[in-house]
Amino acid sequence: MQRDRQQQEPTPLRQTSQQPEQVGEPHDADVSAQLQQQLAVEQQKAEEYLDLLRRTQADFVNYRRRVSQEQAEERIATQSELLSHLLPVLDDLGRALAVAPADLATHPWVQGLLLVARRLTVQLEQLGVRQIGASGEPFNPRWHEAVATEARADVPEETILQVVQPGYALGERIIRPAQVIVASPPSLQE
């Protein structure tokens, strides 16, 4: 019975020198094609990962820039809030010095007030605060608040005639607009 089985089972072909090449060539071509296909897939994945990395890196750079900008804006807003509370003190010092009698100008307490006003002004300048609004400037509603108008023919229309209360700005941010009197054209009835 075993003999019958052995006779029924196909016998392996003997390999000649030409047979492996013929049999091996299609097999090698299949393996090579599979490897190339797998390599292409892996390269595509690598490109996708690299693209994702680049996007993530760009998002992080944008995030850092945005956070830095928000922090700078918050710092300016906080400084502006604090400065808006200090400006009335500077105004009061200016008014006190403006009404000081001339004969007391050399008195030590008047000199002390001058020193305090000067130091406060220097500190504000070092922080980047500048005074806005001056006579002769053109009126700008972004920087100035018109509290009155005066008909004048000798100056151009919308020229600041007088500063009632100086304004202040920190960079391009207005802390307080200048309150001014503005020239208007003379009326035709006059």
Structure description:
- This protein is of the alpha+beta class and 190 residues long.
- The chain has a domain at 130-190: Head domain of nucleotide exchange factor GrpE (Nucleotide Exchange Factor Grpe, Chain A, domain 2), CATH 2.30.22.
- It is 56% helix and 17% strand.
- It is elongated and about 115 Å long.
Strand residue content: 15-25%
Gap between N and C termini = 140 Å
CATH topology heading of one domain: Nucleotide Exchange Factor Grpe, Chain A, domain 2
Give the CATH superfamily of one domain: Head domain of nucleotide exchange factor GrpE
Task: Give the assembly state of these chains.
Answer: single chain
List the helices and strands and how they pair.
Blueprint: H1 2-8, H2 19-98, H3 108-126, E1 129-132, E2 144-151, E3 160-165, E4 167-170, E5 173-176, E6 178-184
Parallel strand pairs: 2-6
Antiparallel strand pairs: 1-4, 3-6, 4-5
Helix pairs in contact: 2-3
Which keywords apply here?
about 190 residues, alpha+beta, Nucleotide Exchange Factor Grpe, Chain A, domain 2, single chain
Summarize the structure in short:
This protein has about 190 residues and is an alpha+beta fold.
